[in-house]
Amino acid sequence: MVKAFAVLAAFVALACAKPHVARDMLLHDRRDAAPRGFIKSGPAPADTELRLRLALKQTDIEGLKTALVDVSTPSSANYGNHLSKEEVLEYASPKAETVDAVHSWLSENGLTAATLSPAGDWVGFTTTVAKANELFDADFSTFTHTATGVSSIRTLEYSIPAVLKGHLDLVHPTTSFSTPKANKGLPSIALPVKFSNVTADASASCSTITPSCVQSLYGIPTTLATQTNNQLAVAGFIDQYANSADLKTFLKDYRKDLPSTNTFTLQTLDGGSNPQSSSQAGVEADLDVQYTVGIASGVPTVFVSVGDSFQDGDLEGFLDIVNFLLAETNVPTVMTTSYGENESDMSIDLADKLCNAYATLGARGTSVLFASGDGGVSGSQSQDCDTFVPTFPSGCPYLTSVGATTGTNPETAASLSAGGFSNYFGIPSWQATAVSGYLTKEGRTNSGLYNASGRGYPDVAALGQNVEIIYQGKATAVDGTSCASPMFASVVALLNDKLIAAGKSPLGFLNPFLYSTGASALNDITKGDNPGCNTNGFSATTGWDPVTGLGSPNFAALVKAVGL
Hints:
Keywords: Hydrolase, Protease
Shape: globular
Number of strands: 26
Strand content: 15-25%
CATH architecture of the largest domain: 3-Layer(aba) Sandwich
Largest sheet: 8 strands, mixed
CATH topology of the largest domain: Rossmann fold
Organism: Artomyces pyxidatus
Number of helices: 13
């Protein structure tokens, strides 16, 4: 999991109030304090330019989510009838009166905005700090991240004009904070193994994890996929580059049976690239590509490299990549992402907008998978905490969160596996029975440390410790749910290959299937826990749990569960 953040800390508001603006303004969002690790350095210079984004109210996002669940529920007559690009845009686009209201207000203030999304629900413009304070009755200030010294401009509250109520959902970036890149963790590197001695045969005991171990444990076939229109997308961020030479060596050592031509294609956005010098290879990107190309045998795999010219502010491309894919005529059938953050660092409004974007991509037929995080119950990465720290976007109901396991005899929960309950999103209907069953077993244990009415995560799990990769030409073992998400995504991609070959639709949004007919097709993990916050965290148990979800994949059983 690659985007580590801190938990909330106390922030003492300065006595100097922002100037009173004699307009009809409505408080839209407020947070009491900046996250721990950020301090207020002082007011932002009045003439500093800000790139602001406005999220316009969509025509019928609730209708889209209803349609998404309908086409994703196996018992529905509409199961598998994913929405077209045009149908999705009809739900997601703002109404004409909303567009007119927002652009009229901007024009009255001497501003012009550019459209930033296919649906037109995001627009952006540039203004000064002084003008932004006036427009939104805000107090944009400079906040410094103490660990890196990197500063950003944010406000702890803002208002919107009353005339935009019901038209404007969000102004961004305002109350959300992002930990600078220099402090974002990578999958932890375990004990290196000597490159010259590492072969698939030498690791057959699975003391370290290789593709053959994963295939053996989960019954994943080694035969080549056949469907060229079944694409598996790997999301790449923060200048992590997938190295083709590392992949070639990986396949030579661990998948000798695959054609030497097996590789990945590249798509870029926001100025993204994928340089190929060995020194620029990224441990996360190498891991993600090697365990998709290396397990989803023959499935077309694309590495989507997001650059630093973000259109979505401190979301750092998370929204941009969704909008990029939604603009395409054909979306990938699976997308795996090994990055995330702590839920509390993001405002509820912003988290909700991004969650809606994943629902929109799911409605097109993409299975969206995210690594759950590596801090147990303490969040994205291990840290000090007084209460359990949910991660994002794993708390979003409209994606599949993947936790981690360790060992093969037996497979148990990895202690790093982030899991718990969202403070922002409630329990979705398809998960209600599973969560209720777990909470009954949990009883008063950890009472008061988590939100028992929140969406539980992860949904599933896969191996996530001591996983061998080739990184900068050498064999290395890594740990993290970053390992687990591409593995599970590969299983989904291979299932889609079989479904498409049989004339059926790809799986799309997975959760309604996983929590119904798919649940019995997973290996239930019943041992282990995910400690953090000076507790033992949650415990793995029979059925769903907030450590390993419903369990790890059983390919043969999943083939039957999807109706093949």
